[in-house]
Amino acid sequence: MDSASQTPPSEPAPRPQTRRKSKSPRILQSALGAAILVATLFIAFAPNTLSGNLNDQLVALLTTQPDAVAVLPGTPRPQIKIGIVAGHWGNDSGAVCDNGTTEQEVNLKIATLVQQKLGALGFDPILLKEFDTRLSGFRAAVLVSIHNDSCKFVNDQATGFKVAAAMSSRDTNLANRLAGCLRNRYQQITKMSPHNSVTNDMTLYHAFSEIDPNTTAAIIETGFLKLDYEILTNNTELVATGVTNGIVCFINNENLEPTPTP
Ligand SMILES: [Zn+2]
After folding, report:
1. Residue ranges per domain, the chain?
2. What is the DSSP letter of 262?
């Protein structure tokens, strides 16, 4: 920051016939100075909830790439890291259906598709196990854990999805915003309804207290294995797109207002 406010290099003595032209570089110089100052201030005042990684990424984004460094078309530049936990993976089966389908395998299938979709969009998604050692102090723009609910028939209302924000996040507004994005986009894509029972299992989810508090996190139960079995197992692409769009909505700070139908 200090380097921008230091004395500018002295201008070369203009030749008399180009005296008038010499004003424009001076204007350019001060415009550039202002741009650098704005960029510096932006970095300086970026919310401290951004992880160090994110700050580095911002700096990289704001830094002009030297022409000498050839960037191949389609090469992703500073990537945004996103953690995806496949619920129960590497630990236990989770809910089990009569036909042998386990929650863990459904979660892993969804989480793997979410990882692929985010990767295709140029993000840096990391697939994590339920008790992955990397969860300790995990720093990323987002962490989302994917689970599913019971495969036992409870009642006719045991259908739909649930989302809970990590209350251990340093900025709970951001966590609530992530949860809002997930709810909105997941419902929009899958046409499923939210189930209005969010348990302590969700809000006090173990990984929330393990990750870096600057990592914005949420957990989604994408459905009930019993009554939502069809969409969860046979339309997993759609389910994964709903989760992916929710994450992208948060990262891109997209509007959550319902879009009017044409
Ligand atoms: Zn579970």
Report:
1. 20-73, 81-251
2. -
